[in-house]
Write a structure and sequence with these properties.
4-stranded mixed sheet; 42% helix; 26% strand
Length: 200
């Protein structure tokens, strides 16, 4: 547990290579003094690096540099192995949440018949229930372009029909021959989808 810097980081220093973005711990912290924070977050004050290392050794903890840009740098007494594990868990969790936000697309025509509309609405409902955003595109052809209100009304109707599952994140707007609206799932739908993904 009480290991000085690795040969790899020493090699970088000797060759004047890129500065390692890795957190410096224990003997790798090469400054005369640090602002020391205790294991429970209590402020110890500015202490010489030798004293900080001795305190860490006595407590069977690591001295970890948490704010290298500060003057003097801030170092905390902690179990570095546990800290790295918890950081990795948080990073994994945030990656998982990012991956859950997928934008699905559904295309409609302004003069869609009721059966087709119900089918498309079913797809949109399913996507929202899974925690995904849905980009709904109305495609106008020929003279239909002179009747944008048809597309607007259809998008509004769809948003109302799926309002229990999602809300309008981006209002309907004309984009060339198309009209586009983005629906986003309610937070509880995303949370439910995340839970189901974890259990899968």
């Amino acid at each position: 547990m009480w290991a000085p810097g690795s040969n790899k980081s020493k090699r970088h220093l000797d060759q004047g290579g890129p500065i390692s973005s890795e957190t410096r711990i224990n003997e790798r912290i090469r400054v005369p003094e640090v602002r020391l924070v205790g294991p429970n977050g209590e402020q110890v004050g500015i202490v010489r690096i030798e004293d900080a290392l001795r305190l860490a050794q006595e407590a069977d903890l690591d001295l970890v540099e948490v704010a290298p840009q500060a003057r003097p740098p801030v170092a905390k007494l902690m179990d570095f192995g546990k800290f790295k594990y918890e950081s990795a868990q948080k990073a994994r969790e945030s990656r998982r949440n990012q991956q859950l936000t997928v934008i699905k697309e559904q295309k409609l025509r302004p003069k869609i018949d009721q059966h087709d509309y119900e089918t498309k609405k079913g797809h949109v409902s399913r996507f929202l229930a899974q925690g995904n955003k849905v980009k709904v595109t109305i495609m106008f052809r020929g003279r239909e372009q002179s009747r944008p209100e048809l597309g607007f009304r259809l998008l509004q109707k769809l948003a109302d029909d799926v309002s229990e599952l999602g809300f309008i994140e981006s209002s309907p707007k004309q984009d060339g021959r198309n009209m586009i609206m983005v629906l986003a799932p309610h937070k509880k739908a995303k949370a439910k989808a995340a839970k189901e993904a974890e259990n899968a």
